[in-house]
Write a structure and sequence with these properties.
Elements: E1 2-7, E2 13-18, E3 37-42, E4 59-65, H1 67-75, E5 83-89, H2 104-112, H3 116-126, H4 130-138, H5 145-161, E6 171-175, H6 183-192, E7 196-200, H7 209-216, H8 220-229, H9 234-237, H10 239-254, H11 257-263, E8 267-271, H12 277-282, E9 290-295, E10 310-314, H13 317-320, E11 331-334, H14 344-354, E12 360-366, H15 372-378, H16 387-395, E13 399-405, E14 408-412, H17 415-425, H18 438-444, E15 453-457, E16 459-465
Parallel strand pairs: 2-3, 2-4, 4-5, 5-6, 6-7, 8-9, 8-11, 9-10, 11-12
Antiparallel strand pairs: 1-3, 12-16, 13-16, 14-15
Length: 467
């Protein structure tokens, strides 16, 4: 395999794009994501790569396309501990298969009839529209035809020899008009693997990868900046988040988890300590255990003297948790944080790994449709999961003691106050890639029948226990 860093910001985070068959780095040379370096991998005549090339990165996200899905599944095991999110686009783990991939007759026909004319036809079939084809040809690969024949033949040989991968993918994206990998075969393949599927209407095999990356990979640099800016005003404006913490505290007492916290002897971990609202609730119950707080942006919570009993680490929790030893933590708590992670499921899996048997993970997040009044206008927001989706994920790793989803409406006199509320809490739905300015958002935010302007939050509280 060949690779190249196509864009570098000197970041500690990396997006690796596994290109499809016949592609090279030119196809993705234009891709950018603030806060991430970009690497492209291509040419699957062999599956060798020296992964020391990514040793300096603390977090890696994978976007694999077409035959690159199979190549990634066979090669990323060595760096899996650094990977947070894995997205498959227009491909499956069985790329040549009559039920779950490209039908064998089409694969062999493509290989046997490959020439300059049929290759261009293949490129045209990848694209749903003339505009897509023009865009692709502006970034077309520059590889030799004999090389492409060798690559396609090698992929077919490896599928016969290699065992299926057991790496779990976070999301599979399917273009409804894909004329290379039959969409229904893709759907069946990912259903078999129990992977979340997103169908893209009016999209072919060649998809807007920049749009996918903008939506699916969190701009953590921006998150850090905005929460730092909102630290001083957070407690006075975060009414919903404060309500969530009060409800968590009630549930801790309701299920007798206060006694479990009192009996903890080693370490209780808080992910996303923020201004310390949850920290001060939980530490009332702690007797002997060390209380460790992680946060990406906030300073050390006030009134908690650091030392043997209280430890604060400024870090990206999604990466930091990879370094925590197995079964070394008594309990984990987190409020209104994990919606900012690239892969909530990978985080749950890691929570299960580091918790001792019988330990609790008490977490809250926000579900699909949160702040819909904003995202409906901007067409930009976090890739949030439904409450049902969260329950399905959690059940793979934990016993679900409690799952409570609810809605909370905040209303404002005018749209400017609504937008100011988001800024003062750091919860800003306008990403760097948004085409909507704050002024346009203010003009478009709808007034409700009561004459006021509403923002709807959709919190979810989960009480999970490791069996």
């Amino acid at each position: 395999m060949n690779y190249r860093i196509t864009h570098s910001e000197g970041s500690s985070r990396l997006i690796i794009i596994f290109a499809g068959w016949g592609m090279d780095d030119n196809v993705f040379d234009h891709i950018r994501r603030p806060g991430y370096d970009i690497m492209v991998i291509w040419d699957y005549r062999n599956f060798f790569i020296d992964w020391n090339c990514v040793s300096r990165y603390s977090e890696i996200c994978i976007l694999a396309w077409s035959m690159g899905v199979y190549a990634a599944s066979q090669t990323i095991q060595a760096i899996d501990s650094k990977i947070t999110k894995k997205i498959a686009v227009g491909g499956t783990l069985l790329p040549v298969d009559d039920r779950f991939g490209i039908p064998e007759a089409i694969y062999h026909g493509t290989l046997q009839g490959l020439n300059a004319i049929t290759l261009r036809k293949f490129f045209r079939r990848m694209c749903a529209t003339h505009a897509d084809f023009d865009h692709f040809m502006n970034h077309a690969p520059g590889r030799e035809l004999d090389e492409l024949k060798e690559e396609l033949a090698a992929i077919g040989d490896r599928i016969i020899l290699n065992t299926p991968s057991n790496i779990r993918w976070d999301l599979a994206i399917i273009g409804n008009d894909d004329r290379i990998f039959p969409p229904e075969n893709q759907q069946a393949a990912w259903r078999k693997c129990n992977v979340i599927v997103k169908r893209m209407p009016e999209c072919g095999h060649y998809i807007d990868f920049q749009q996918i990356i903008n939506h699916e990979f969190i701009d953590k640099t921006m998150v850090e900046q905005r929460f730092k800016a909102g630290t001083a005003t957070y407690n006075d404006n975060a009414a919903v988040q404060i309500d969530v913490i009060e409800r968590i505290d009630e549930k801790i007492r309701q299920y007798g988890i206060d006694r479990a916290l009192m009996q903890a002897r080693n370490n209780v971990l808080e992910v996303g300590s923020g201004s310390g609202l949850l920290s001060r609730k939980i530490t009332r119950y702690i007797n002997e255990a060390c209380y460790t707080m992680w946060d990406l942006a906030a300073p050390v919570p006030e009134n908690l003297p650091l030392g043997r009993r209280y430890i604060f680490v400024n870090c990206d929790a999604e990466s930091e948790i990879n370094s925590v030893p197995d079964e070394s933590v008594d309990h984990i708590v987190s409020a209104s944080t994990i919606q900012w992670f690239n892969s909530p499921e990978n985080f749950l899996k890691n929570c299960h790994r580091i918790l001792r048997k019988g330990g609790y993970a008490i977490v809250s997040t926000f579900t699909h449709g949160n702040l819909h009044q904003i995202s409906d206008i901007t067409r930009h927001g976090l890739p949030l999961i439904t409450a049902e989706g969260w329950a399905n994920m959690a059940a793979r790793y934990f016993n679900i003691v409690d799952s409570t989803a609810y809605e909370r409406d905040l209303d404002f006199d005018n749209p400017l106050d609504a937008l100011r509320h988001l800024k003062l809490t750091g919860v800003n739905s306008l990403g760097r890639a948004s085409e909507i300015s704050p002024r346009q958002l203010i003009a478009r935010l709808p007034m409700m029948l009561d004459g006021r302007y509403h923002l709807t939050y959709k919190p979810l509280i989960l009480i999970l226990q490791k069996q």
